From TrEMBL:
Coiled coil region boundaries: none
GO cellular component: cytoplasm
GO biological process: proteolysis
Highest taxon of the lineage: Eukaryota
Protein family: Belongs to the peptidase C14B family.
Organism annotation: Dendrobium nobile
Protein name: Peptidase C14 caspase domain-containing protein
Length: 354
């Protein structure tokens, strides 16, 4: 018997210049998929969305707390954890002294702009219980490499193909396209730095924000709610650890957050696209309320078409998603990040819940 738990996060950013349409839909559809196909229960699925006050708001601190609780809930053995994020992605240039395998810090963008970066995700997976597996689906732009230094099985984020040019859905620009059997409007799920700067100005009331001080702005604005990993360069201040306790010394901070340990669990990242690509937020012309993320919709479609008893490995699922998206006219190319062994393991299992 396998214990199962999930955290599903959808950020539509309603009423802002960054508004998307399909992210909350992705969450509700993925919830149904987990229950129907993989034996998850309602009680073990945590949902954070920003369009319904009856749910927890997906702020930066709330997302980190939910992920920390998810990771801590697992017991050593075969427990299976699932994390789904649909929303904006972004990336910040890595500092010269940082050994980042893509050259950037890939981020997810909570509804309050309190960024969660690739090093945060590395910290989460390093805390997995022995034998436990965490599968992350990131339906956001710039999501390739979202787990810092995870092995790239499928993708071009850590070893760029210089002879290839990526053509993407422009961030913040709505395009008309055709996918499948109907017309759709596409919006990129990237949050360009200028828009991030503008939204940070609005939320903080500060005007002296630019690309060079985004890190310090977030740290100053959100205090102990900001990512501890953002504070690692040039900020000697108290930070909050995974259990919510403050650590006050720079040495303690560096030993806790900057020296990665070998993860004892098994992590999987399925990214919607490469580190330098946009992912599509698709809104059907005929039924705009049915908006969706291209990756989320594709994964759910593949799973719905599975023959009874058919098992899809992580590698096969990502390859099928790439093929299906390309046939539908999407330019984004999903990625897979995990060990060689985990790449061949099933994408989730249909075992009963404990």
């Amino acid at each position: 018997m396998v214990g199962k738990a999930a955290v599903l996060i959808g950020c539509n950013y309603p009423g802002t210049k960054a508004e998307l349409k399909g992210c909350v839909n992705d969450v509700h559809r993925m919830r149904r998929c987990l229950i129907d196909h993989f034996g998850f229960t309602e009680a073990n699925i945590t949902i954070l969305i920003d369009t319904d006050d009856s749910y927890t708001l997906p702020t930066g601190v709330n997302i980190r707390r939910a992920i920390n609780r998810l990771v801590r809930s697992a017991n050593p053995g075969d427990d299976e954890l699932f994390l789904h994020f649909s929303g904006h992605g972004a990336r910040l240039p890595a500092q010269p002294e940082e050994n980042d395998n893509t050259g950037y810090h890939e981020c997810i963008v909570p509804c309050d702009m309190n960024l969660i970066i690739d090093e945060d995700f590395r910290h989460f997976v390093n805390k997995l219980a022995d034998g436990c597996r965490l599968t992350i689906v990131a339906d956001s732009c710039n999501s390739g490499g979202l787990i810092e230094n995870a092995k790239e099985q499928i993708g071009e984020s850590t070893a760029k193909r210089k002879d290839e040019a990526f053509v993407d859905v422009p961030a913040g620009v709505e395009l008309h396209a055709r996918a499948g059997n109907g017309d759709i409007h596409l919006t990129g799920r990237a949050l360009p730095i200028p828009i991030l700067v503008e939204l940070l100005k609005e939320s903080t009331g500060k005007e002296d924000i630019h690309e060079g001080n985004i890190r310090s702005t977030i740290i100053d604005a959100f205090g102990d709610s900001a990512s501890p990993r953002l504070a690692k360069s040039g900020h000697n201040r108290g930070i909050v650890d995974v259990n919510g306790k403050e650590e006050s010394t720079r040495d303690k901070k560096q030993s806790t957050f900057l020296a990665p340990t070998a993860p004892s669990g098994r992590s999987v990242l399925i990214s919607a696209c490469q580190s330098d690509q946009n992912a599509a937020d698709a809104k059907p012309v005929v039924k705009p309320e049915g908006a969706y993320g291209a990756l989320s919709n594709t994964i759910q479609s593949i799973l719905a078409d599975q023959a009874k008893g058919e098992v899809l490995s992580n590698r096969k699922l990502v390859l099928m998603a790439r093929e299906k998206l390309a046939k539908q006219g999407f330019t984004q190319r999903p990625g897979l990040y995990c060990t060689d062994e985990v790449a061949e393991e099933p994408f989730l299992t249909s075992d009963s819940v404990v």
